[in-house]
Amino acid sequence: MERTTLDLWVGAFVVAGIAALVVLALKVGNLSTYNVSDTYQLQAHFTNVGGLKPTASIRSAGVLVGRVTSIVLDTDRYEAKVTMSIDKRYQFPKDTFANILTSGLLGEQYIGLIPGGDDKMLQNGDEFKKTQSAVVLEDLIGKFLYNSTDSKK
Amino acid sequence: MAIVRSLRGIGKRVINAVWRTGYGARFFLMTLFYSGMSFRRFRLTVREMFFSGVMSLIIILVAGMFVGMVLGLQGYETLKRYGSESALGSLVALSLVRELGPVLAALLFASRAGSAMTAEIGLMKATEQIDAMELMAVNPIARVVAPRFWAGVISMPLLAAMFSAMGVFGGYVVGVVLIGVDEGSFWSQMQSAVDFQHDVLNGVIKSFVFGVAVTVISLFEGYDAPPTAEGVSGATTRTVVQSSLVILMLDFILTAFMFRGD
Asked: Which of A50, A71, A84, B74 is deepest in the core (most CB within 10 A)?
């Protein structure tokens, strides 16, 4: 087989196309941010998860420490059971607070971890005992209206 | 009498359209059936990839860059009203990867490469090269049509990916470099909004389907063109018009399937 400049051009074209796909996957998509390091699983129950989605980030002090793997309805308690995988490098005390927070006004929801002071650490499969559900805007407005009419009486 | 004549004319057109659809479907199946040669003698396909893929590269890259820049500018103006300029990255990337990349790349591909394919095959027919091949017992579908078909089908997703990547770069240049949106939030918002499987892969599937549609229409129009100068020019026009309409129609159907229930 003889090599031609035409082959060279077509080869460069294919390489550039695949490179563009890789850029889209790694730089634009979130493929690179999937955790490849070792993780351990933790659970938490919330009365309302709001707009939390699987692959949502879990942050502590603003640092990404893990991701939500699944959200299911626990029919024993009728609460949302959120399973998350946390990077093995980060250990949290048993009395860590798990809150569902929103980044910015229009941002995505994520789980914020506020560490407590317990000596024992959470192990694989453990559950966060202290959780705070997502703030539902309608509830908030409802409470505000209810309170303001109450105080006028 | 005038009513009868016009009714007869409409009927003739309808029958003609149905006939062409059937012939087109048979042509498509025959192309798939005789595809063996385009893989056994892959050099033929590579040669056609040069003409349909590499030669379309400039227009795809330049158009992608400008589309991204316009998105960056327009998106910034709109998002500024809600004080969420940092969402510019996700706006640019999502609209490019899901919609504009595959669709605009396919439209440009149809008018740049598709029309050239139609004209080339139409001219081969007008100069009786296709008949000559048949006389020499060379199957023109296997020798001429199938390599062009596979070249187009392989090139299209690559071109769409390059269009999207270039568009994201254009959005970055306008949004971050010129206007001054925070670079970190531009990329991080983009990465948290774009999902690889859901957005990037579906975009690739879309462009693959568009590639099949555009190349089949171009090749069929060329193959079916009346062997005159007028016939070839009419076929070229029909290629661009039909491919553009089919791309937009398929886009609606595919989008309805892929992104329903979000």
From this structure: A84
